[in-house]
Amino acid sequence: MANMRRFGVFAAVAASSALLLAACSSSGDDKNNNSATNGGNGSQDDAVTITWWHNATADPGLAFWQTVADEFEALHPNVTVKVEAIQNEDLQRTRIPVALQSGEAPDLFQQWGGGEMVAQVADGYLKDLTGLVDDDVARLGGSVAPWQVDGKTYGLPYQFGPEGIWYRPSLFEQAGITGTPATLSDLSADVQKLKDAGIEPIAVGAADGWPAAHWWYNFALQSCPTDVMQSANSSLDFSDACWTTAGEKLQEFINTQPFNTGFAATSAQQGATSSAGLVANGNAAMELMGQWNMSVMTGLVDDVDGLLADLSWFPFPSIDGAKGDPTAMLGGGDGFSCSAGAPDACVDLLKYITSDDVLSRFAAEVGGIPSAPAAQSAVADPTLKTIADFMGKSNYLQLWLDTSYGPTVGGAMNDAIIQLFAGNAAPADIPAAMTAAAAQQ
Amino acid sequence: MSAESTSVVVPAAKKRKVSTIGAPAYIAAILAALFCVVPVLYVFYSGFRSSGQLAATPLGLPKPFVWENYTSILGDGAFWKMMFASTFIALLTTVGVVLLGVMAAYPLARYAFRGREGMYTFFTAGLLFPITVAALPLYLVLLKLHLPGTPWGLVLPQIAFQLPVTIVILRPFVKAIPREMEEAAAIDGAGRVQFFFRILLRLTTPALVTVGVLAFVGSWNAYLLPLLLVQGSDWTTLPLGVARFQTDKSQNTALILAFLSLAMLPAIAFFTLLEKRIVSGLTGAVKG
Amino acid sequence: MTVNREASGGETGLAGGAQAPSAGPDATRAEAVKSHKSRHWGEITLFTGPALVIFATFVILPVILAGYVSFFHWDGGGDLGKFVGLENYRDVLHDSVFLKSMRNNAFIVVMSLVIQGPLALGVALLMNRKLRFRAAFRTMIFVPYVVSEVIAGAMWRLILDQRGILNSALLQLGIFDKPADAIGWLSDTKIVMWTLMFVLTWKYVGLAIILFLAGLQGVPDEVLEAAAIDGASWWQVQRRITIPLLGPTIRVWMFLSIIGSIQLFDMARLLTNNGAPFDTTYTMAMFVIDRAVRMRQYGYATAAAVVLFVISLVAALLFMRFVMRRDNETEGGAV
Lengths: 441, 288, 335
Prior knowledge:
- The structure holds 3 protein chains of 3 kinds.
- Chain A is of the alpha/beta class.
- In chain A, β4 and β5 form a beta hairpin.
- The N terminus of chain A is likely disordered.
- Chain B has 13 helices and no strands.
- Chains in contact: A-B, A-C, B-C.
- At the B-C interface, α1, α4, α5, α6 and α7 of B face α2, α4, α5, α6 and α7 of C.
């Protein structure tokens, strides 16, 4: 009809101008063009500006990083540091990818390592720090591994820690539980005791996806031999039967209904009705979460001291008869990378941030477990100390699976796990979805 | 349309109608208004309570009145900066949308030319693609034009995305302007362009106000584009502030509610001020 | 008594005016215009030019660029990656999650029309008289539309959460014994779609009412009064005269509502935290954004976006052709 023909004319005009624009803006030339700073590797005497993006939008983190920036400026008078704090999800999902893609990347920015970093390296967005930070790598030890690709270093972590189960001892007492569960069957028994006492056993922020997924990660970690886990990080090969066994065991556990009512719509950290909020306010007894959970929970209650006096932690229980290493732990952390076109001063700033001195103060003032072993003694809180101890005793530290495998496989994995929770998927569907997503890359 | 049945019997008929059917009208209006407004009022007055009060008695009234939530936000310079940015950008967008929209709607409504329906379809096609996916390529286009970080980087795309709705709504309004007006103007020697600027704009004012309000509200509430373009810069807008506030202060529900209330106020105020204009304009258009 | 709407060859509209008889004046007009053809085109360019340029640059161009990406497996960084032709499209159309979200959108389209249409129409008809405080009523009804999606979503989540304000209030009133008994407005898979419809109605019914009220301004009082004098009841008048005259406005609203429902994103996402529980409230737009932003499958996501676009386009074209046809016809004559 005539209408469609007219539309066709307009579409053709628009299309040809689009192709013209696409031809002119080929991404290859523009990336790494760092117009945000006086880029390049000028001598230390030239005035240099470094842009720094991090995810601590609230105090104490916000104030702390600003202090660090100010101190660095004082030590290097020719350098100005422009700090920008951006909300975590916005930073990871929108700001950084857009900035890298458009060639207007900040100099120093938040880096979580793993598969996403691998992609950034492949696209040439990151500065190769190998040779510039060797002493730091040696000092920081094993936690640097997720920030390395093929033996080359592309970032340094400032905090790193394992996850485990946070719990309220007073609620355990109320339910008549002594000690903490060491195996999965112990945990199930405790769950039952809590239910009998009218207490919601485990809070999980399934609305956000990943908190529920972490349950499966830990089941997988306990079900799969270490070498299988380790090789999967790079091979993305999920053909071993243990990946399905993990789901089967999880499904059994889910069927005992250990989670809070309406967990499918519970968020992880937002407000008093989030999973962290539920535990913080005594409305649920346990939560599986990373080492940052303490600072999240203290932000959700009025009586912080009361909470801290009644908060403890135990590692994820082992599974009888499973093939995984019972001391293996799942963990992750935060770090920073320099973009490819950043000035040398960026590397100096990174080294400063990850120095033992700064990280000790980080542990004391911000909370969380610093990546530098020497700084871990500055961790004051007893619960955090416990966590750091267990980390030291573990034989194998695996990075969060979704971080390690990258956003495509990780996203597919998390979605499949959620469907398992919903009762809409079978245990074997999870490795199947992961394999399919891996093929898409 | 018959001309006989107008004047004489009207007054009597009107009186009868108002007295017998008045009650349901008021009931409907009151119910609708309450349904729409009560949740918002709840947010407003809850801002005057502390989070502790809220947790204890969710539905209660402020006891005691807590001023700190509102005063701490109003005293924060950053809040006013965002307010200014949002207002400036929204006003520019509105002016652009209304002007370009009515200009484009005029030929689409009154002229007959080949490709007219095609052009209309071209504009409405833009309604149909989710901006969220076009956002990344849009950002690249804006980058080429050196627009990120500037208010124009927000204003121009917002105008563009608001045009389809505007044209869809304006075209029937423009079409309904009686032919006699145009013919009378032509007889007086005025060309179409003059007719447009002198007469048409005034006649369609109520519709222009409507699309203007929609454009203002759309710009005021925009989230994704500002996130990409102005976050962290001097031009950061209120919705970004809301989202950030929510995550930073997620434990202090009352404070969040206070912030939400203040962020809502300007858009509501804008509409309220212009509401009278809409009413008088509409009655004016019908009468003459 | 009927009104001859079609008297002047289809000049309908939202604000009625005197209807010119056909024949004479139009024929003369036609001749006059032919001699001004070039000025005619000049004026058209002047009026539509700026809008066209801005629209093409900031909407059409990015859309086409985005569509181009759909033929690749692109992860959002570096070069475009592997060219895969139509493979993304094929996968999308077989993706069970996408198909489920399509069904969700269909539900929302239908229920939005069914719930909001009659409700708004009823309220608008009842309010269409010289009410006192009319302006105040109108302002209050429009408030939800003016509130941003971010704020509305945040607000209703606080209210409807499992342990949120509504359930806490019901708990206090004694309707439930303990928190675990409370209704999962947002977490019960059987209820959550209805909760979503409720919140959507709250947010958007005001727009419908205001549009209908504006349209009703164009229904001439004389017509209604004449009918009333002839003995028609209020309801008969509305049904036979007012509502049909309101037709174009209703159809514009339906169009906007359908398109809005197909593309629903912000409100639903903020309220349900991205489709929880378990994808029950997942919409096609959420699917697109997740695949692009969270899973970095930009090629796949834009293919889904194009499918979403095509669905909207087909719906729009069908609607315009068959339902709005009468409103778009040109007047008789070459003007």
